[in-house]
Amino acid sequence: MTLKTVYVFDILSLGMQRIIYAGEPWGLPLDLKVLPQYLKDDGYKTHAVGKWHLGFFKDAYTPTKRGFDSYFGYYTGKQDYYDHTSDIGKVCEHFE
Fold first, then answer.
1. Whole-structure pTM over 0.85, yes or no?
2. Is 95 helix (H, G, I), strand (E, B) or coil?
3. What are the residue ranges spanned by the domains of the chain?
4. Over the stretch 46-61, which tens digit does the pLDDT of each residue have?
């Protein structure tokens, strides 16, 4: 998502060598520009569908605050397909 190779950017130095579980107070650092932000700079519309596993403990870490115009999906690694819940409650959202 950051467009940086492992040779240029050591993701382990950020402490992101593991899954971000629900309720953990961290995410992909906000000072890192991610793909949708680059695309928006060039005039593209950006949308995401699926799993967002880059942190969500604050609004600033969510997909629509990281460059996506809209997002439909869930923030954790899993969800129930029938009631859209996880071990933290409702996790499926649709943002625009």
1. no
2. strand
3. 11-95
4. 999 988 888 888 999 9
